[in-house]
Every structure is written in structure tokens, then in C-alpha cells.
Amino acid sequence: MLDNSRLRIAMQKSGRLSEESQKLLAQCGIKINLQEQRLIAFAENMPIDILRVRDDDIPGLVIDGVVDIGIIGENVLEEEVLSRQAEGQLPQFKMLRRLDFGGCRLSIAAPRDFDYQSPQCLDNLRIATTYPHLLRRYLNQYNVKFKTCLLNGSVEVAPRAGLADVICDLVSSGATLEANGLREIEVIYRSKACLIQREGKLTEDKQALIDKLLTRIQGVIQARE
Ligand code: PRT
Ligand code: ZN
């Protein structure tokens, strides 16, 4: 059982955000004894427990109040919020700050020979994506109807495999699109990692610790700029 008096921070266990998340906490002076396979790590010098999970679980853990704060990509956070809203929930959390890593964009990409003029060209097509809600919010603005092909990985191979006409996926350098014969045609969302806090009042000690961390994060990020 986790000790509820200690601040709980959720971060990605292994993936594109985990190294930078760990580094940020270390640069804030938190000494964590990380053991690769462990779900939970304890800070040695502060009352902090680190929960290491799949990034997709982090927004829910914060919104449901299971952890106090979380480090997560805005793309995953926003998709979870839209998904819960679609189910009639009112997901609540506090945005503490944007961080200076994990930058990427969520884009629609099509085979290179696709004749693209405007979002209307996507009407009634099948689009492969991990982010159906962000995609729907974007295309709704243009009254474009589409069919989805939900994939949690290998989205970029969907057109070649005949699963979808176009894709909507994360892009950073563009090399993956290029390697799969795809061309970026619309950027629908720009994302960075961010720090979020659960809704509701925390104990004074916990809130004071978060405030101290935020001041340190501010210093760390400023020093890197
Ligand atoms: O296992 P877990 O569920 O925790 O991890 P995951 O595999 O779902 O996510 P992960 O580690 O790949 O990404 C975590 C977060 O990093 C994302 O939610 C984004 O906020 C951020 N991020 C930043 C990226 C990228 N850049 C990125 N380039 N996430 C994924 N990509 C992938 C993209 O999906 C595509 O396959 O990289 C490929 C494109 O990269 P380029 O450089 O070729 O354009
Ligand atoms: Zn994930």
C-alpha cells in the first residue's frame, strides 16, 4: 500500500518521455533509486513516490486522483479528456506548466501521390490513427466525415497495407512518413510534455512540495534556454 502522505508522481516507465522526465526530477534535486523493472520508486531525500507506467495511463491516474501529479504529452492528455467527455464525464485536473521536451505534432499524412487541396478532400475516407477524438474535433470544424481505423502502433503502414486511405499520427523529424511514402498534409495539434496536478485540495505539506518543485523546474528550464 502506498503511503498517502507522500507526494505521488506518475511518469512514463519506458519510452520517449521517460529519460527526460527522470532527468528533470533529478535536476530538481530528487534522488530516486530507480530499479528498471519496478513500478514504484521512492525518493531518498524527499517524501515523494514515483509511479512508472504506460504514458496512456497517466492522464487517467491524475484525473481519477490516484496520483497527485503526472508528466505527460499534451497529445495523450487531450485525447483522454476528449474521450471522457464523449462518455459524458467532466474530467478535471490542473495544468501546472508546459515542459521543454517531448515536442511533436499530430498530423494527417497521405500517400505522396494523393492530390490534396483542402480538408474536404478527406471526406468519407478511412483514416488510421491512435487519436480518433483529436482527429474528429479537427475535421468537425470542416464538416468532414470520415471512417476510422484504430491502431495503437504501426499507423504509418496502414495505407500501404490497404487498411486506410490516409493516417493521422505523431511526427517529429518526418523521417517515418518519408520512409513510408507519406506526405504531411495538415498539422492538427502541436504537443509538448506537460506537468499536471489532480483536482482538489492537497495537504499543505504536499502543496508546498509541489510549489517548491515548480520553482526548481522553472530554474532548470530557464538554465537550459
Ligand atoms: O509504452 P508507452 O505506452 O508508455 O509508450 P508509447 O509507445 O505509447 O509512446 P512513446 O514513448 O512512443 O511516446 C510518448 C510521447 O512522446 C508521445 O505521446 C508524444 O507526446 C511524444 N513524442 C514526441 C512522440 C514523438 N515525438 C514521435 N516522434 N511520440 C511518438 N513519436 C513516433 C510517431 O508515432 C512515429 O511513429 O515517432 C515516429 C515519428 O517520428 P519521426 O521523427 O520519424 O517523425
Ligand atoms: Zn502509450
UniProtKB/TrEMBL annotation:
<comment type="function">
    <text>Catalyzes the condensation of ATP and 5-phosphoribose 1-diphosphate to form N'-(5'-phosphoribosyl)-ATP (PR-ATP). Has a crucial role in the pathway because the rate of histidine biosynthesis seems to be controlled primarily by regulation of HisG enzymatic activity.</text>
</comment>
<dbReference type="GO" id="GO:0000105">
    <property type="term" value="P:L-histidine biosynthetic process"/>
</dbReference>
<comment type="similarity">
    <text>Belongs to the ATP phosphoribosyltransferase family. Long subfamily.</text>
</comment>
<dbReference type="GO" id="GO:0005737">
    <property type="term" value="C:cytoplasm"/>
</dbReference>
<dbReference type="GO" id="GO:0003879">
    <property type="term" value="F:ATP phosphoribosyltransferase activity"/>
</dbReference>
<keyword id="KW-0460">Magnesium</keyword>
<keyword id="KW-0547">Nucleotide-binding</keyword>
<keyword id="KW-0067">ATP-binding</keyword>
<keyword id="KW-0328">Glycosyltransferase</keyword>
<feature type="domain" description="ATP phosphoribosyltransferase catalytic">
    <location>
        <begin position="54"/>
        <end position="219"/>
    </location>
</feature>
<dbReference type="GO" id="GO:0000287">
    <property type="term" value="F:magnesium ion binding"/>
</dbReference>
<keyword id="KW-0479">Metal-binding</keyword>
<keyword id="KW-0808">Transferase</keyword>
<dbReference type="GO" id="GO:0005524">
    <property type="term" value="F:ATP binding"/>
</dbReference>
<keyword id="KW-0028">Amino-acid biosynthesis</keyword>
<comment type="pathway">
    <text>Amino-acid biosynthesis; L-histidine biosynthesis; L-histidine from 5-phospho-alpha-D-ribose 1-diphosphate: step 1/9.</text>
</comment>
<protein>
    <recommendedName>
        <fullName>ATP phosphoribosyltransferase</fullName>
        <ecNumber>2.4.2.17</ecNumber>
    </recommendedName>
</protein>
<keyword id="KW-0368">Histidine biosynthesis</keyword>
<keyword id="KW-0963">Cytoplasm</keyword>
